[in-house]
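User: Structure please.
Assistant: Input sequence and predicted structure:
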Amino acid sequence: MIFFRRNTPRWIIFSIDTGICFVSISLAYLLRFNFRIPYNVYSTLYFVIPFVVSVRALSFIISRTYAGIVRYTGTKDAERIFIVILAGTLFFIIADFINYFFINGTFIIPHSIIVIDFLATVFAMTALRLLVKTLFLEFNNPKLRKTNVIIYGTDQFALTTKQTLDQDVETNYNVVAFMEDTGQKVRKKLDGVTIHDTQELEMILRKLKVEHLIISKGDVNSVKKNEIIEISLDYNVKVLSVPPVKDWINGELSFNQIKQVRIEDLLEREPIILDKNKIRHDVLNQVVLVTGAAGSIGSEMVKQLKRFNPKKIILFDQAESPLYDLELELTENHNFTNFEVVVGDITNEERVSNVFETFQPGLVYHAAAYKHVPMMENNPTEAVRANVLGTKIIADFSTKYRVKKFVMVSTDKAVNPTNIMGASKRLAEIYIQSLNKISKTNFITTRFGNVLGSNGSVIPRFRKQIENGGPLTVTHPEVTRYFMTIPEACQLVLEACAMGKGGEIFIFDMGHSVKIVDLAKKMIKLSGLTLGKDIQLNFTGLRPGEKLYEELLNDKENTLPTYHSQIMIARVFGNEYSFVTNNIDRLIRMVGIQDNFQLVKLMKEIVPEFKSKNSIYEQLDLL
């Protein structure tokens, strides 16, 4: 019992290994001479056996083969034993040849005995370790208490995953099947477990009580992965995933790294292919200013940009604590220090002027904005101040200091806006488009939908509600939204910037819109809970300014394709700068008056397609 419950002292392992070497060389002589060793050979054993055992013992000390925990023996341990024993065997062969050619013309050890000894030693040392490992696992993990698991994948990562599960003593996992898409490996066995075609998944789930399915395949097609996950969830099977190899600790997978699949994984699409040369040409050796750098989009933009060797990245934001967190993440996790942290407000003209004067940026990524629809509906003056005035100040200084490119992160809510936030972003779009006509700076707009995991996104809110036991709150059973992951959105922003010539509004392929209620139900399933039993779902009604469906294009807009299949250019009607700037200036002056209705009325005059929904400002549309 004690042998299986604590680590065996290293001197015992060393002694056992040395004993195995003694037995192996003795057995080699017995087998070579059919258990009748001639006298002349027998007389040499008094020197040969101590010589062989001493060399083996010395090689064990040097390589520390005894230091591994026997009950966790894996392929790396077997590989090390093979190499150490092989090295010792080569030493015997070399010693034999030296003795034969340079000393007394005889071989110390017959070559056949060296080969037999090598095979016997490698087999005995490896087999003993595997035997102890098997006995330990059986002793601590009786079959009756094991949890059935299916592993999706059949490569080395999948095998490593199984071995990691076998070694976990806290939860007793029993891998019952490997799954593979192609037919080449189907019906074969991997580490004693049968490989099945993914089409047999439902059959296996019906036949066996499987509790977990682990995705251990790096190159899995997103459509196929979603199909596997959907089937698993239908059978109340919890889905886990293995992280990429680069995230393994010291190159080894631990059980704690195998995480539950998140809703973001279900909404992922095929990887975005970037024209890295174009992006590098834009970013290389440039001073890049990122506004809103501490936000979810801004911080990801910084992480994406650092790969293209900018001269310096200026992190500009008014949020002190998130900026500090980003600073620590860049220096400690990404080993990146080529940046400057600047705390400031984009509506503070003096502060912005100082930033441009000090750092002379060549590229500006403008991600700073107020984005929460209901909150901005109740605070329209702040929406205009931050989203319109702030954009105008950053854009004007970009022109003054001859910035090469200015990229604004906009939103699908700017299309046929039904809320203050969307209308304010549309006004910002209109201003920089008109400014592009008279400026040497190329002003580019990127427009996309909701970003998974961003601050204020529905996903973190649902996740927190699930952690608190529910209920999950959805505004309306028919409400739909477009979704994109944060890295996807930022990669497409970089690509759009590289291809932009100025004045364009780039829209991204957001895929299919997703019903929020379906999203909530999937998150409940992913958490291993049952809707109506473990957790409830409540409908609260649309919030101020919200609409059921989002759009990416205005009714009057059409699109032009680009060389990138996921990026299109919206053709929009642009106004002259003098006309636009007069209206924008009038709007900004009204911020100080703090008359919400008059402010919103003027917004509607400048943006005629702005029609309020579920808002107190709907009455203005009747005038």
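Residues 292 and 298 are 5 Å apart (CA to CA).
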